[in-house]
Amino acid sequence: ILISEGFATGASLHEATGEMTVIAFDANNLLPAAQKIRKKYRDIDIIVCGDNDLSGVGQKAANEAAAAVGGLVHIPDVPGSDWNDILSGGRHD
Hints:
It is built from four helices and four strands; from the N terminus they run E-H-E-H-E-H-E-H. The protein is globular, with a radius of gyration of 12 Å. It has helices spanning 7-17, 30-40, 57-69, 83-88; strands at 2-4, 21-23, 47-49, 72-73. The termini are far apart. It has a four-stranded parallel beta sheet with strand order 2-1-3-4, with helices on both faces. Strand 1 (2-4), helix 1 (7-17) and strand 2 form a beta-alpha-beta unit.
């Protein structure tokens, strides 16, 4: 199960992978979303697909959420981008 911050990012991830995708709607909701998913799906892989925020907020929240549920983190390499930017060929800062 993939977890993303925003709707567009979640939609792009689902479209690109076909995997179940949960949208947290905010970096601060990644941890509670991951915890709820882990409670419901104890044996499934969870990948928190965080944003590569210039402020570091998205990366920190994604790492904390993944660590709390034994999940993985996937952050775009491009600073200031999210997975929607990468998968749609765009970028924002």
